[in-house]
């Protein structure tokens, strides 16, 4: 818990007062809640037939329990359009994160210690079980071998 407080303090000095972005708001929320809800993947989203079929069942039962269903419901659009919107949102956040990471890397005061460790941890974090994600072909394709330094879990 102490490390997250240190990261939060460092980040407050990095963010421009009054300039809030969706990512910076999310990062602050994450730090406030002491849990990580963000992820950044170095690959494009790949449609998954199993997930799509499950979503259709949920959609038909009007169970809006995930981001795709919530976006579809709030935007009054169909399932395919909702999936496209969520994919666009994820891509926008990936670009925003990449820009913020570059700013952190180019700032000598932030390119060390708490903030850099936090940013690097976000790169490896996935919304699913992180240990399983590093060894699962479902996320990386058949034949993918996880780098040894990325095995394990994140502890804050």
UniProtKB/TrEMBL annotation:
InterPro entries: Isoprenoid_synthase_dom_sf, Terpene_cyclase-like_2. Its cofactor is Mg(2+). It is an enzyme of class 4 (lyase). GO terms for biological process: isoprenoid biosynthetic process. Its EC number is 4.2.3.-. Keywords: Lyase, Magnesium, Metal-binding. Pfam families: Terpene_syn_C_2. It comes from the Eukaryota. GO terms for molecular function: metal ion binding; terpene synthase activity. Gene3D superfamilies: Farnesyl Diphosphate Synthase. Transmembrane segments: none annotated. Belongs to the terpene synthase family. This is Terpene synthase. It comes from Selaginella moellendorffii.
């Amino acid at each position: 818990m102490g490390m997250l407080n240190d990261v939060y303090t460092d980040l407050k000095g990095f963010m421009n007062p009054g300039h809030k972005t969706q990512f910076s708001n999310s990062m602050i929320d994450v730090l406030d809640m002491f849990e990580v809800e963000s992820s950044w993947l170095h690959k494009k989203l790949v449609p998954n037939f199993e997930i799509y079929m499950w979503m259709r069942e949920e959609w038909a039962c009007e169970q809006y329990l995930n981001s795709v269903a919530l976006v579809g419901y709030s935007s009054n659009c169909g399932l395919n359009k909702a999936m496209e919107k969520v994919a666009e949102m994820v891509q926008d956040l990936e670009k925003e994160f990449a820009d913020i990471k570059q700013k952190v890397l180019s700032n000598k005061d932030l390119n060390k210690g708490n903030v850099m460790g936090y940013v690097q941890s976000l790169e490896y974090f996935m919304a699913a079980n992180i240990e399983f994600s590093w060894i699962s072909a479902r996320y990386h394709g058949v034949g993918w071998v996880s780098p040894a330094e990325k095995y394990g879990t994140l502890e804050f």
